[in-house]
What does this fold into?
Amino acid sequence: MEVVREAGSARALLHPMRRRMLEILAEPASAASLARALALPRQRVNYHLRALDDLGFLELIEEKKIGNCTERIFRARSRSYVIAPQTLGALGARASDVENKFSAAYLLAAANQLVHDMTSLRAEAGEKKIATLTIEADIAFADPAARARFAAELAEAVSALVARHHTDGGRRFRLVVAAHPQARETKQP
It folds into this structure.
């Protein structure tokens, strides 16, 4: 997974043609084979390939001499990408700007902060591992009252657990617990 931190790189990644090229380049391919797959002129494909390569999205796998030409085989450097919230600067969502802590806006701002923190930590850590914990579960509630009881019990259990394990002066960790209705599955564009 590659974290995109520059606005220009994010813009290139969001360009439909370049995004499609990166999808195809999960496997090594040349400009000629990309042009065939996309039904586009090779010159147009080369233009976009050059831009992706200049931004560091591609790795050169091999160069083949074919007559007077050199065919370059590329592969995408990553199979997935995350655009860091820092890319938006002051426009990025912040939980401190949202009054209702039970709103979707607050949850999105907290998720934005989580992505911001993790992308920053990954950049600092380099190849070192980062101590993290992720717990995911799906749950179906009979009614809103059951959901409210669950939320109250979960908050009580988490508060008790935090109180038992928190040590002043120790390495600080952020714990985020979130619940939201499960989204319907949709095809990504």
Summary: The beta strands are 2-4, 29-30, 58-66, 69-76, 81-83. The chain has two domains: 2-81, 84-165. The mean pLDDT is 89. The radius of gyration is 23 Å.
